[in-house]
Design a protein that fits this description.
InterPro entries: PTS_IID_sorb (IPR004699)
Mean pLDDT: 85
Organism: Staphylococcus succinus
Number of helices: 7
Pfam family, one: EII-GUT
Structural class: mainly alpha
Protein name: PTS glucitol/sorbitol transporter subunit IIC
Keywords: Membrane, Transmembrane, Transmembrane helix
Number of strands: 0
Radius of gyration: 21 Å
Length: about 180
C-alpha cells in the first residue's frame, strides 16, 4: 500500500510542478512575448505591410539574407521565441528553413547577447566556466561561438531548403514562393 501512496503523491507532484511552471510563465515569458508581439505589429502598421512585404520578398530571394541576416537581426531585436514571428513574412517554401535557422540563433548568440535566450544561458556559462578554469578568456569563446553559429545556422537553413524540396517532390505538393499574408 505504501508504494501506491508514494506513486500517487509523485504523480500529483508532477502536475503541481507543471502548474507552478505555468504560473511562473504567466508572470514572466507570456507577458514579454505578448508585449513584443504588440510592438512588432505596431511597428508593422507604422511602416506599412506593403513595405514590409516588399523587403521580405527581396530578402527571401537571397539565401544569405534568409538564413543569416534576418534570423540574426530578428534574434537580436526580438529574442526567442519572437524571432519566429518574422517567418510570417517568408513565402511558404522558405518558412521551414527560416525556422530552422532562427531556432539555432537562439543558442549560438547567447555568449555575446544573453538577452536572446536567457533560459539557455546556462549552457554557454557551463562551457565558459571550463574555459575560465583553463585560464583562457571567455570573450574569445563567445565570439567564436557566434561566428561558428552564424555559419552553421546558415548551412542549417540552406540544407532545410533541400530537405523541403525533397519532401515537396515526395508528397507531390508545391509550396509557394510568393508571400501571402492572411489577415
Amino acid at each position: 500500500m505504501e508504494y501506491v501512496v508514494k506513486f500517487a503523491e509523485a504523480f500529483i507532484k508532477l502536475f503541481q510542478t507543471g502548474a507552478d511552471t505555468f504560473i511562473d510563465w504567466m508572470g514572466t515569458i507570456v507577458p514579454l512575448v505578448l508585449m513584443l508581439l504588440i510592438a512588432m505589429n505596431t511597428l508593422i502598421q507604422l511602416i506599412g505591410e506593403e513595405r514590409i512585404n516588399f523587403v521580405a520578398q527581396k530578402s527571401a530571394k537571397n539565401p544569405l539574407m534568409r538564413y543569416l541576416v534576418l534570423p540574426f537581426l530578428g534574434s537580436f531585436m526580438l529574442a526567442n521565441p519572437m524571432v519566429h514571428s518574422l517567418g510570417r513574412f517568408m513565402p511558404e517554401k522558405y518558412k521551414p528553413s527560416y525556422f530552422a535557422s532562427a531556432s539555432q540563433f537562439a543558442h549560438t548568440s547567447n555568449g555575446l547577447f544573453p538577452h536572446i535566450n536567457p533560459a539557455e544561458l546556462f549552457i554557454f556559462l557551463g562551457i565558459a566556466n571550463g574555459i575560465q578554469k583553463l585560464g583562457l578568456p571567455t570573450t574569445d569563446l563567445a565570439v567564436r561561438y557566434l561566428l561558428v553559429g552564424l555559419l552553421v545556422n546558415f548551412i542549417g537553413g540552406w540544407v532545410t531548403d533541400f530537405t523541403t524540396s525533397f519532401v515537396e517532390k515526395q508528397q507531390k505538393v508545391k509550396l509557394s514562393k510568393e508571400i501571402k499574408l492572411e489577415g
